[in-house]
Structures are given as C-alpha cells and as structure tokens.
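Hi L.,

You mentioned the student needs an example of a multi-chain input paired with its predicted structure. This one should do, with 562 residues in total across all chains.
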Amino acid sequence: MIVEVRSVSKRFGDRLAVDEVTLDVPAGVCFGLLGPNGAGKTTTLRMIYGVTRPTSGSIRVFEMDIAAARRRVRARLGVTLQQNVLIEALSPLENLRVFGRYHLLREPELSRRAQELIDFLELRSHATLPVRQLSGGLQRRLAIAQSLINAPDLLILDEPTTGLDPAVRLALWSRIRELCATGTTVLLTTHYMDEAQRLCDHVAIMSLGKVISEGAPADLIDSLLAREAVEFDCTPHEESLFLDGIPPPEHRLRAGRRLMIYLDDATALAAHVRQRDPHDARSLVVRPTNLEDVFLSLTGTNLEWQQ
Amino acid sequence: MSISLPHALSVWRRNAAMYRRTWWLNILPNFFEPVLYLAAIGIGVGGYISEMGGMSYMQFLAPGLLCVAAMNGASFEVTYNIYVRLTFEKSYDAMLTTPIEPDDVLVGEVLWAITRSCIYGGCFFAVIALFGLAPRPAALLALGIIPLTGLLFAALGMAFTLRIPNIDLFSFYFTLFLTPLFLFSDIFFPLKERLSGGWLWVAEVLPLLHPVRLARAAFAGKASPVLAWDVVYVLALSLLLLAWARRSVRRRLTS
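Structure written out for the whole complex:
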C-alpha cells in the first residue's frame, strides 16, 4: 500500500472534522476522495502528508510512519493545494525553479525538470510571462506542474479542476490519467462526480467526517442503485398521477421540481410518463445511473432521499 | 525535528528571487527615509546647532540613522510581507507540502529579513561615507551592527505578526512602537544629557537604544564596558522572541 490510514480521527475544539477514517491507497491507482464541502477531505489529506497531526489513529505512507518520517515522505510526494500558491511577479519557469529548490534540486537538473513540466502541461508559450498575466486555467496547470517537480511517486490533488472551463478540465484529466499510466499513484478530492467517474479507479465517499461508502465507481453504482434513471419535472402532488398504475419504484430522489427514479428497466415508466405528457413539457430524460446519483443518495445534501 | 539549513536557504532563495523582480518598489521608500531625515534634520535643524556630543549634528545623527535603516529593512519584511504570505498567499502551506518544516520557514525568513536590513543599512552606510560622516576606519565595525539590528527587529516583528488577527493592527506596531523607538533611542539627542538618573535606567529597555550605542561607539572608535551589555541585550532578546515565534509558527502552520 502507498497510503494506509487506520482509524484516524481529528478534532478541532468541539468539532470532529474526521471521524475514525480507514483508507488504503494501493500503488498505481487513481483514488478519489469524494464528499460535499466540509466533509473532512482536506483535513484527511493534510494528515496524510503530515502537516496536520491526527488526534488518534495512525497513518503510514510509503510504508513509513508519517509522524516519524515527515521529511522523507514528503520528498517523495507532491501536493496541489486547493488554492494556487504562485509568485505572481515571476514567470512559470522561475516559479518552478523556486519550488524545486524546496526539494533541494540543483542545476542543471532543476532547469531540466522545470522545462519538462512546462512541456508536459503545455505552458510553453507562456513560460516566461509573469504569472499574474496568465488565465486561471494556466495558473492551475502551473500549480500542478509545481507539485510534480520532484517526480513524485504519490500525487495528491485537492480539488484539481474546481472553477476551470470544460476544455481545461478535459486536458487536465488526460494528464492525470497519463501520470497514473506511468506508475504515479494519484489521490484526489473532488465534488464533481463526472470527474471522479472518469478519472478514478477507486473512490471513497465522505460525509460529516466519515467514509460512508467505498469501491470502484461502477461497483458502487451497481450495488447501491438500479441501472437506469428516469428524470422529469413534476410537483409532489403530480407525482402520484404519473406513477399511477405502475409498481412503486424502490428508489427515488427529488430536487425541487425534478424527480429522479431509479430502476433496472426504465422503458415502461418512460412510456407511461410520455403518454401522460405527449409534448414533453416535463423534460423527460432516460439515462444510465451515474456516480452523482450515488453521491446524492448517500450524502443527500439539500435533497430529500426517499426510500 | 531539527532545523535543516539547506531547506531554510531555499525559503531565503524564494524571497530573493521575488525581491530581484520588485526591489525598486520596496527599496525606494524604506531606503530614502533615513536619507531624508539626515538631509532635513542634519542640514536643516543642524544649521542651528553648532555641535552635539562633541561633533557636528550631521556626524551625531549618522550612526543612529544607520541603525534605523537596518531596523526598517527588517521590520517591513517580517510584518506586512510575512502576514501576506501567511494569510493570503498561503506560501507556507505550499512549502510544507515539501520536506520543509516550520522551523526551516522561520529560519529562512529571519535570514531574509537580516539580508534586507543589510541591503538598506549597507546603502545608507555608503551614503554617509560619501558625505564624509564616517571618517574613522573603526566605523567599518558598524557594518557588523547592521545584521545584529536586523536580527533583533526580525524577532520583534515576527513575534508581533504571528500574534495579530488583523493586518490593520500593524499601524499600532509602526506608530506606537517603532516611531517612539526612533525618536527616543539616542539618535536625535544624547539621552544621557536630557534624562535624569531613574529615567536613564528605564530607557535601557528600548531595543533600538542598544544597536545605536554600539554604532555610535564604532563611529567614534571608542570601546567601553557597557557595549558588552548592549550585545548581550540584543542577542538575548532576539533568541527569547525567536523561541516564542518558533512555537507560534508551528501552531499556525500545522493545525
């Protein structure tokens, strides 16, 4: 195992931020830590790279106890924080060189590595401009490049693509997949389920400091919900009219006017709704169940989960 | 875990890399402040003063203002700049994802603050030497007092910066702490001639007084036993404050 977290809790005053979390991150996987804001994801990461000390429990990274070997562990990992930490007056190349020195890299290795990462994250045409002139997407790519300067065996990404446009997200995802394919273990947090589903081999869903579910995305979907989802708009009052005459569905979820019903074969229900709504005023959609459905059904933020 | 000097130096190099790009923004106001005082008070007020402490008023002012230059260089660095890195830029959070530990951050920042005090103090020394205000070779010893002053004010400012919850409180530090020090630390008039016995003892707590007395002795080329007390004061207070700052840095960065 690259990371072993054993019954770890973290208390800040009265607040229990992380509650008896146990995780195993095997070598070479892309592991996703999912959960709503405030679920304890960032605190868990901070404990893994040894900046926050757990209140109880133990953490081993690269088979070393993080409490006893912080410097040695951190020499072999890279972390991209939620907030980009860049020196705005300096260029991307200079930023990378400054960061490389934190790992005690020296010339010519330092410049060689900085240049490689400029190429890898496609920052070449902006490599010598002051960072303050770069767009948000370019700055994020530079922040990720920084965390790769020491060619880490473990890359930790805290919400890598929050606030980025779709093209940048796609580009970053493919870079992260490439890293995984070449043997880097990736541990990331996100609250975008499409990101988790595309990137992660394994996910753990956190809520209120606890891991509430864990597994491969496809397995989680299979084990927790039916295969298909039918979505359409209707008020709770209209719901009984639409569902009248068909067996009551096992799982359904409502977000405002939007009703989502999960079943293994949606054909009958979809036909039933279409019949009552021939002009599709209800925006009916039939789609495969995804990780977002699982996430919402487990964490239920702002949404009412009915069984 | 103990301090790693190479890691502390990488923190120092971060600041140096940034400073190379923005030095003209920082150096101009801080460096000109003592030069302006020297010109306005030394030439202006000095015109009405035939001598002070047995020398021209410009000569009297020079050693004290040298210490002020060193004090300013360190103070601006460890107050506003460190506060911004700590609170807004999160620079230290990023450093702590690498093998750098909080102790290295503290050492690197103090070394950098001392470096800045040496830049300001060194420039100011060149100016006063050019004006012929440091005629004795012994005045070169004052160059060694610049980093000592930098260390002291790095420690004082750091202890304050780590404590305050709000950036606006720095105006207290500058107006109610550094300005009185500037005015009452033997720089503009000899304390010994204006204060009575009891008050002279009270004045000994003023941190800036001690570097100024050392610098004055160097410029005059006259050693005396009290200078040993001045050195002990500067080193002891610095170490005490840094030991305290060390605990605060750890608490701030690793909770």
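You could point out the following to them. The CA atoms of residues 19 and 38 of chain A lie 13 Å apart. The two ends of chain A are 37 Å apart (CA to CA).

Best wishes,
N.
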